[in-house]
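Researcher: We're reviewing a set of sequences before deciding which ones to prioritize for further study. For each one, I'd like a predicted 3D structure that I can look through quickly. This is Carboxyltransferase domain-containing protein. If possible, include the structure in token form so it fits the rest of the review sheet.
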Amino acid sequence: MATERITPVDLPEPRYEYGADDHVFVELAEEMSFTANFKAMAITQQVAERDIDGVVENCPANASYMLRIDPEIIHPDDLIAELKEIESEIDLENYEWETRIIDVPVLFEDPWTHETLMEFRERHQDPDGTDLEYSAELNGFDGVESFIDAFVGAPHLVTMVGFVPGLPWCFQMVPRNQQLEVPKYVEPRTDTPSRAVGFGGAFSVIYPVQGAGGYQLYGRTPIEVLDTEQTLPDFRDSMVFPNPGDILNYRRIDREEYDAIREEVKAGTYEYNYGEVRFSPEEFFESPAEYNERLMEVVE
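Model: Here's the predicted structure for Carboxyltransferase domain-containing protein, in token form for your review sheet.
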């Protein structure tokens, strides 16, 4: 298992589309894969580095990306021509980028998400169990504890941020045959606690604010991913902390640590535990388990 590698996939030709008058959308693949996501990040990083005049926003996604432009400054066709040039120059095997390994403490089976998931049981595939029990059984684990072990056993890559402001979508950094997968609720909930850690399809998420949701609920983190007032030290440059390309290390904590961290957050003194690394897709593909272990050393 430890020596299993990830084989990069062959991607189709990108599909370039206009989005009204002021957006360009590029689909790199219909299916999520590390190759497609890494390519989306590499291209959008190069767009940012070139500081192309007329590009207003730059948004990588799971297997695509979208740019908002000022059409008075740059014509979409001119931008598409430059994007094709960037795409042709990128060699993922030799491409690397600076990223962050971020410690994310999680109180699994917490009282708040448990109350919510039990309130909406009639909308779930398994009305008699919990979301963790359902996920464990569906993925062939002998119980909740072993399922959580697998969930926190490898880091999760932030593949995109969106759907609601500040919500990180994360894909676990393991070979496809080890990916955990669960469907969303049969019918979405009308309520989800803020900072709930959820899972749907093959993506983990952290709900930045209270609201509707359909992902399975596993726990709650005491830390914020969205700070609209930018009062916490790590939010001084942006109201959103996780960025595409960041790597989250979900870590089990108990109620005592959860409460202690919340006190720091409420006091405005909490600072994320994270370290910076240079990420190599080639080294990750070659030996994901060993490479993940090396990455995690910066937050231990």
